[in-house]
Design brief:
Glutaredoxin, two-stranded antiparallel ribbon, 39% helix
């Protein structure tokens, strides 16, 4: 008799656990995932410069002024959506915007930049995605704010909207004294 009800009991227990998980995470999105990098030094990297592939760019080369690290790829539909916002931000002069080209083909990335424009002060290339692991990057687009001392102050997963810039990013730029 017990063996007859055992599969039902296992199914009910799994359904209960899944239900509790869904209820506990109701209304949350991937954008709300808090990065363990916030308040910590930005991970080191040594990646080729997009414009000069023989030149290596290191995180330490970017220290001394705040910057926004924007992770993008030509194959990323959401990157296309956020590109005008990144462009406006770069043109505002409030912050230096560094592009992080993630797991992309060079020819496709060049075509994408020709079509949409290049808002980046500099672009680093991570063809394999190995350096992205240290940053906790798991997709595109993702954006990080790094202060002048090289400390990560903010991470945003997904496309940045004008509202995100106004509500989240600009107050942080004011707090770290960027663009003044």
């Amino acid at each position: 008799m017990i063996s007859r009800w055992l599969p039902f009991g296992v199914f009910a227990a799994i359904a209960l656990l899944l239900g509790v998980g869904v209820i506990m995470n109701a209304g949350r999105t991937q954008v709300e995932i808090v990065s363990p990098l916030i308040g910590r030094p930005a991970p080191d990297f040594a990646l080729p410069d997009f414009a000069k592939p023989s030149q290596i760019v290191r995180q330490s080369d970017l220290r001394g002024q705040p910057y926004l690290l924007n992770v993008w790829a030509s194959w990323c539909a959401s990157c296309r959506i956020e590109h005008p916002v990144i462009t406006d931000l770069a043109l505002s002069g409030r912050i230096t915007v560094i592009g992080y080209n993630y797991k992309d083909e060079r020819a496709a990335a060049e075509r994408w930049l020709r079509q949409l424009g290049n808002p980046y002060h500099r672009i680093v290339v991570d063809e394999t995605g190995r350096s992205a692991i240290d940053w906790g990057i798991y997709g595109t687009p993702e954006t990080f704010l790094v202060d002048a001392e090289g400390i990560v102050r903010w991470k945003h997963v997904g496309p940045i909207s004008p509202q995100t810039v106004e509500r989240e990013l600009l107050p942080l730029l004011d707090a770290i004294g960027a663009g003044r």
